[in-house]
Model the fold of this input.
Amino acid sequence: MPISEGTGMTHLIDVLYERGFVEQTTHQDELREYLDQAGRSCYIGFDPTADSLHIGSLVPIMALAHVQRCGHIPIALVGGGTGLVGDPSGKTEMRKLLGPEDISRNAESIKSQLARFIDFEKDRALLLNNADWLAHLEYIPFLRDVGRHFSVNRMIRAESYKMRLESDEGLSFIEFNYMLLQAYDFLMLFDRHGCGLQMGGSDQWGNIVAGIDLIRRMRQKSAFGITFPLITTSSGAKMGKTEKGAVWLDAGKTSPYDYFQYWVNTDDRDVQRFLALFTFLPMAEIQEVETLSGADLNAAKRVLAFEATQLAHGLEAAKKAYHAAASMFGKGEIPAGLLSSSAIHKGEAEFGDAAVPRSTIDRKELESGIPAFQLFCRVGLTASGSAARRLVDQGGAYLNGERIPNFDTLISAKDLKEGAILLRAGKKRYHKLSVS
RNA sequence: GGUGGGGUUCCCGAGUGGUCAAAGGGAACAGACUGUAAAUCUGUCGGCGAAGCCUUCGGAGGUUCAAAUCCUCCCCCCACCA
Done:
């Protein structure tokens, strides 16, 4: 592994390639040279239209974290300016326009999420908002100074536009302008922070290259770009989609337990790839996963889940989720030699269901008994009473581990075990009910 | 602005007066098999304490014993023309 001179650190480019972050790059050799020197900055844009990031943003987040770990300065750029317009791409309904207050509130919560992965102290990383320069842009000067460098002929040949131009929905003028705005972002970051590298999803290639061109034309300097592959699961689904919708990084929207469960349920074929992308465990250890199967591979999934949860929610939350999973699904030893750098080895699996979804019920109400289907619906294990009936009819509803025979079986105080009732829907979804 | 086509249940997509809570596929859920995996097979898949009732087919009205299906107006999308 080549080491960049002086820093004693692994070269960012090598790390990104090795861990599967790279789809394509511009000028490979020059880019490597650019990153030979420590303290380079590198930016990625984030969309501030929601108040939380989700798993889909994890690849860019991890990439920025690697930027920092390799001795460079990551810049997270929140698209406050572009968010004010509302990106219409691929959306069936018009996205609601966000006001500046919404954007800055979202930017704040996004920053606090990023802060778990990236150290923002002492300018070791920056969080910027492109509204700072886009909001005051004047149209005529912009066209004269920036617009003249763009050839429409070239733009419409860009892959990202091509598809839209040929599709039924077409391409709106706003969307067409995103390339200019994003190129301008890059220029501004280059001017203000000496940022010479932009990374982004593979759909951003055209926009990134446009920024590089703009910098060359207006500043006669080189800048670089890296795109990430689109990460899909081996079964073809996009990352982070579940029946409940997106898997969020915000603990209030997706609990650490559910987050942990999402990762444990990783497809066999994805475990190794995901360990490389979504944890910081050494590649030497991750490569050994290649040879695993059966129970060992399952253990590797728990390590993946533990590490990913630790990154997003901290060590304590990861432990709780892990222990909760152990008490619901069984301990399942993690072999000592497996991915041994993980903190999962520093605490034995214990039974502790603190992270299991739970709620309370009034004692009196419970004593009079509640039909099973009503209870399942009420605690949120099913979406409706009808769904709960079906669940019980199909034998998918369990009370303290026993299958519930009829949808109207009464659940009452006599079912309390150590002060609580454990409900289960299907094989994986648990809910703990205690009396208040 | 004109002409033509279209908006159907989570998604795609049939359905052109009753047999429609609406074909088919996908997704999802449950069961069996397993390893909290995949694949496969079976079942389910609007709501409601059964029969039955209620709400749904872009929106609002109307015709009819009866409408997703017919009529009127409106909204939105697409194509071509201007």
Observations:
- The longest helix of chain A spans residues 173-193.
- The mean pLDDT of chain A is 86.
- Chain A is about 40% helix and 15% strand.
